[in-house]
Write a structure and sequence with these properties.
By secondary structure, this protein is mainly α. It has helices at residues 2-19, 26-77, 81-86, 107-121, 127-134, 142-170, 181-189, 192-224, 232-251, 262-285, 292-311, 321-345. The chain has two domains: 1-90 and 145-255, no CATH class; 106-125 and 258-340, no CATH class.
Length: 346
């Protein structure tokens, strides 16, 4: 979770320094953003996180629907839709927009699908998402929560995709940092006051993620390690401690380093949480009497497999979530089969 928080603070630094160039540098932007997030999370706890999520989600939704629709309208009205479809992606990308499978053939298509499916499958093991569903008070709310969750992901992902494609035609030159396309599009297309709202929406997305990770990590530490000392002071102390660590990591991060982009950092954290909790969560869900030892061993095997996957360089070919989950599942089923066979003989 600290890695996740690190990524969000890096995103804060990038967004503010790009929006207020000449006023805030990257380090000052990280400090300002982190201070606000840590302050309201520590003071308000879960209530502040939930209440601010409503406003933040509204801003994000309007941005990721309104700006893409406006951009697409401009492209169509200027007769440039065919240009987008037939224009190659930047040379830094490994695919062509016109290719259905991203320019890949044969086995590369399979690896591409496995990697992309792994990003979606990783939702299973995200504690900051699971905690929202755990807050459901009765079964009648489950279909509503499911529709909201799936609808949100579908609409926002389509919106970001459309906006990215339109940027190829609308922007006079591609941005130096591809992670700032939304900011560049807002600044180029909209008046200053409206671009400011878009910047606020980007910050809302960052803050909504960061406060969720922070509150989930603190709750986990209190529950697992200091349950006998749970108090408001202890909670705020851990919030401040984790926030300082993530802030220090973000400040020492080079925002121009391609190996420490927000996407890269989030990818590591997203995969790590999915591998640590995904398979054990499914095992617990479908087993009325889950074995704690099997759960812990499965988590350990998954994390070791993930580490080896990166050390061996296999992550350059396929995202580690699905392969590591398969290894975990095979290991867990083997242990279950061995235990049942042993018990049968006894």
């Amino acid at each position: 979770m600290t890695l996740y928080l690190w990524a969000q603070f890096v995103a804060t630094g990038k967004a503010l320094s790009a929006s207020f160039a000449g006023i805030f540098n990257y380090e000052m932007s990280v400090l300002c953003g982190a201070l606000v997030i840590i302050a309201y999370t520590a003071c308000g706890g879960l209530i502040s996180v939930v209440l601010t999520d409503v406003l933040q989600a509204s801003l994000m939704f309007l941005t990721l629907v309104g700006l893409p629709v406006y951009s697409l309208w401009l492209v169509i009205s200027n007769g440039q839709l065919e240009t987008i479809i037939n224009t190659p992606a930047p040379s830094s990308a490994s695919h062509m927009i016109t290719a259905l499978w991203g320019g890949n053939t044969g086995l590369a298509i399979v690896l591409l699908l496995v990697s992309n499916f792994g990003i979606g499958a990783a939702y299973i093991g995200q504690p900051q998402i699971a905690s929202r569903f755990m807050a459901i008070q009765n079964s009648d709310e489950i279909p509503i929560a499911r529709r909201i969750a799936v609808g949100w992901v579908t609409v926002t992902c389509i919106g970001v995709t459309i906006l990215s494609l339109c940027a190829h035609t609308i922007l006079p030159a591609p941005p130096n940092d591809s992670e700032q396309v939304i900011l560049e599009m807002a600044s180029y297309l909209l008046p200053n006051w409206l671009a400011g709202i878009i910047i606020a929406a980007v910050m809302a997305a960052i803050m909504s993620s960061a406060d969720s990770f922070l509150i989930t990590a603190v709750a986990s530490i209190q529950k697992d390690f200091v349950s006998g000392f749970s108090s408001l002071k202890v909670s705020r102390s851990f919030t401040l401690f984790l926030g300082i660590i993530a802030t220090a990591l973000a400040i020492t991060t080079d925002p121009s380093d391609p190996n420490t982009t927000v996407f890269q950092l989030v990818g590591y954290a997203w995969g790590g949480l999915a591998i640590a909790f995904g398979v054990p969560m499914l095992y617990s869900l479908f087993n009325s009497e889950p074995n704690t030892k099997i759960i812990l061993m499965t988590m350990l095997v998954g994390l070791v497999a993930m580490a080896l996957w990166h050390v061996l360089g296999l992550s350059n070919y396929v995202y580690e979530v699905i392969p590591c989950m398969i290894i975990q599942t095979f290991f867990g089923l083997s242990i279950l089969f061995f235990n049942r066979r042993t018990n049968t003989k006894i």
